[in-house]
Amino acid sequence: MLQTSFSYDALPMRVRFGSGAVASLPDEIARLGAGRALVLCSPEQRGTGETIADALGGRSAGVLAEARMHVPIEVARHARARAAELGADCCVAVGGGSAIGLGKAIALEHDLPVVAVPTTYAGSEMTAVWGLTEDGRKRTGKDPRVLPASVLYDPELTLGLPIGMSVTSGFNAVAHAVEALYAPDRSPITSLMAEEGVRAMTEALPAVAADGGDLDARAKALYASWLCGACLGATTVSLHHKLCHALGGTLDLPHAATHTVVLPYALTYNQPAAPEAAGALSRALASPDPARRLWDLAGSLGAPRSLRELGMAESDIEPIAKQVVDAPYANPAPVTHDGLARLLRAAWSGEPPS
Ligand code: NAD
Questions:
Q1: What's the pLDDT at 2?
Q2: Domain that holds residue 121
Q3: Residue 124 alpha carbon to ligand 1 centre in Å
């Protein structure tokens, strides 16, 4: 049924997509009126960062290969200081959510525009959400200044993303779209993007898992991650993301793998209370039970399916349930302590969602 009452704030997004798109980086920097780009990446992607900096020649201010998951405050402080010392007037963040998150942390303080070159499917490049971790607590906020000014999606840069990480990162993207379908601020536009994002990602992942060098499958997955990221940027998240935030922030569980494990259980919890979202997901996944279909797909692609195998202790179930029930937020199904404890216990043991 068409949603007949909604509001929709489109974020200003500039995207260049395609094999070899990264070659247009100098043009994108010039378009911003900038001329000294600090290239940000994770230590593991220093080689990619240096190749990009070399290609920028005189437009490069250097490479900072220090991005880390959840943006520790000391990493952000050091990056801000380096950007100032080097006279950078923009940042190029190449990598996953960690590198883009570091670019956002610099933008938050120094107002430098970010050009994002995503190499995972996490979707941070499409949102104005920043995160910083201090004393073991992750703070997040929204600020239009951190939204990348330009995004270059180049599937060639994703060919080296390990298969396991590709699959879990793909599920991370699907989770954004799933929650956008029942978000309180969804609209027909976000629902279109979400349904197509889920369809494209779940079609692409088996092909990526079979051959990580399949450029067409990589392009499809990256296209899907754009759609799913745009959903995340335009809507408010619910139970699934709150659970993953608590599990990641409190127990330091790996981001994308946690999303992969939790999604089928969070969806099982919510889908009876969100029939239109369930209908869209049934179409996208060609299954009458989208939650079970996602669980089966994760298993067939060799992804983790239990929180226990990610390192969570059974004794963590109660405190996490309490943490997530105590913070109020919109969710299609009522969030109760017993309901969450049951959900977490099933996700912890990895039993089929039901
Ligand atoms: P990540 O950025 O930490 O990357 C994981 C690892 O994969 C890193 O070692 C990285 O160097 C490597 N890698 C990335 N791309 C590669 C490639 N193509 N080839 C080889 N190696 C590659 O992981 P992520 O899952 O993309 O991001 C997670 C972080 O992003 C979390 O901190 C999460 O909270 C944040 N995030 C934020 C938002 C937002 O809107 N603010 C959205 C999604 C995720």
A1: 85
A2: 15-158
A3: 9
